[in-house]
Amino acid sequence: MSTPYKVPAGTMVGHIHLKVTDLEKALKFYRDLLGFEVTTMYGDQAAFLSAGGYHHHIGLNIWQSKGGAPAPQRAAGLYHTAFLYPTRKDLAQITKHLIDNGYPISGASDHGVSEAIYLNDPDGNGVELYRDRPKEVWNYRDDGTIVMVTEPLDFNELLSELDDE
Fold first, then answer.
1. Is 55 exposed, middle or buried (CB count within 10 Å of its CB: 0-12, 13-18, 19+)?
2. CA atoms in the 13 A half-sphere facing the CB of 50
3. Residues 6+ positions from 16 with CB-CB distance below 8 Å
4. Between the CA of residue 53 and those of 36, 46, 95, what are the distances in Å?
5. What fold, for 1-66?
6. Could you state, in order of their start, the residue ranges of all structural domains in the chain?
7. Do domains 1-66 and 79-165 have the same CATH topology?
8. Which of 28, 32, 104, 150 is the most exposed place for a label (fewest CB within 10 A)?
């Protein structure tokens, strides 16, 4: 057997590309609610969105899914996409924005290594908005693996990040 391949440490997920049933509804969620910027449109068939001017972090298309049903929840497929926010204050700001706009939050967790807010896009795709804690405060087992937990996230404590605004 050959030597196992190990992905290089600097490798990152570059973008996601989702099949959606209604491009305008998807744009209202990813552009208008979450704040991603449209970088390219392919007519009324596809959109590419970005944070900070990158060519795209999110692709949305209706090429094979226009007017279709959402993906079944109890089937194999995408569990969720995850968007990493640079600071805890940034996560607090998007959380407040969701609350202020009455957008349903389906969950919130403290994972020890990160704090996360969960919601669904208009097609039922799971979306995680999170921030990582500094690696220096992560906990490790004796074998070197990371200890991750799923504890309730304290919304009030998270939103207290915005008290100085």
1. exposed
2. 10
3. 57, 58, 59, 81
4. 10, 18, 23
5. 2,3-Dihydroxybiphenyl 1,2-Dioxygenase; domain 1 (3.10.180)
6. 1-66, 79-165
7. yes
8. 104
pLDDT at 164 over 90: no
CATH code linked to domain 79-165: 3.10.180.10
Beta strands in 5-45 (DSSP E): 16-19, 37-42
Q: Of all residues in the chain, what percent carry a pLDDT higher than 90?
A: 84
Tens-place pLDDT, residues 59-106:
999 999 999 998 888 988 889 999 999 999 999 999 999 999 999 999
pTM, whole model, 2 decimals? 0.91
Cα–Cα–Cα angle for 62, 38, 53, nearest 5°?
135
Q: Where are the beta strands (DSSP E) in the chain?
A: 16-19, 37-42, 46-50, 58-61, 80-84, 107-110, 114-120, 126-132, 151-152
Alpha carbon distance 78, 142 (integer Å)? 32
